[in-house]
Design a protein that fits this description.
The chain has 230 residues and is mostly helical. The protein has one domain. It is built from nine helices and five strands, in the order ββαααββααααβαα. A hairpin with a 2-residue loop joins β1 and β2.
Amino acid sequence: MSASSSCEWRLHLLAGYLGHPAVAKLLSVVKKILHHDILLDAMNSVLHMNREDFKNLSHEGFVWKDRRMHDLGNYSYVLLYQCLMRLAAHESMHVAMKFIHIGALYPSMEMKAPPTLTSFSMKGDLVEVALALCRYTGTAIPTVLVKQRVAFNALMVEYEKAVANVFMITFTSDYGYPLLKHLPLPDHLAKAIFFANVVVSAAGTKQYTGINTQFHRAVREAEDSVGFFA
């Protein structure tokens, strides 16, 4: 679907010969983040601090790259949040329950929460809290914690590259990288990414036809959601 005359999403390519390796790489990075202790620490922090402290701490979260602080943007963080929630349901019941508890505390952080500015902000804030927990790596910090924090930051840099690769394959535009107004809703894009991975795995099985139908429905929903941020 075209977002304008000068740009176009081709999310069906997520299951293609170029798209699927990019999807597999992205999900492999998300899986590592899911099982990282820093994420669990961030989730526990969110569950046990008040909303004001939660928000204030999120303001200190940045990705360190080339010795400089970088903000990957709230869209990138919310997309990660949605991917983590979907993956947790299959990979870690413990983390999945943490997401359920967070959603009970803050309904706007549920997977299917309506797409509002509050929902996007709070989901992105959780990832920024995780990054904030990594901000100190000096000599006064125990070596084991420094290694954890450096490793988590490296995963976030890897995640940024993996998302950029997915966009490069599925998005064409005069602008190059999609602007915010060109992006699908993060939960819709996460769903399309996950179905792309499943449909390739199901090739040659009796379930393929049904899964392929679900994949293309997810693609249409994602492409139809473009423009929400305009």
